[in-house]
Amino acid sequence: MVAGRRELLGFASAGLLAYAVDLALFTCLRGPAGLDPLTAKALSFVAGCSVAYAGNALGTYRHLGRPRGLRPCAVFFAVNAAGAAVQLLCLAVSHYGLGLTSQRADTVSGAGVGMVLGTILRFWGTRTLVFRPGDEPEHRTRSWNGTSGGRVGSWTG
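Given the sequence above, the corresponding structure tokens read:
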């Protein structure tokens, strides 16, 4: 139970930091830099995902060993893109499908319901597809004699 709580808190901490980077960069790119909203959001999304990946790899899931190659990073970005798509889908259904067009309705559906569902998808995808518990390095789970540890067959008893 404690390990699950620690994982959830680590994931949330990395996500909050990534959100802050995304928001700050988007605001700077949109305001002083004068970029159009889609370009600014695309760049801030990539920066936020990079921070979240680093936070999860070096913090939350560090006990699983350092991820190797581009695959974990690419899968992480795909999972985060799917989470963003869930948020957009919630907003689209509410705004265009249900006709709830006020700013409050858009905020509730996109930043409320969409964020919760997207975060659940991101958490599941990150722990299941990116930082899988079965990916632990062998030297962490096995002893010198190939067993799960212990002193079986030791001359000391």
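Residues 2-30 form the longest helix (29 residues). Try to locate this feature in the token string yourself.
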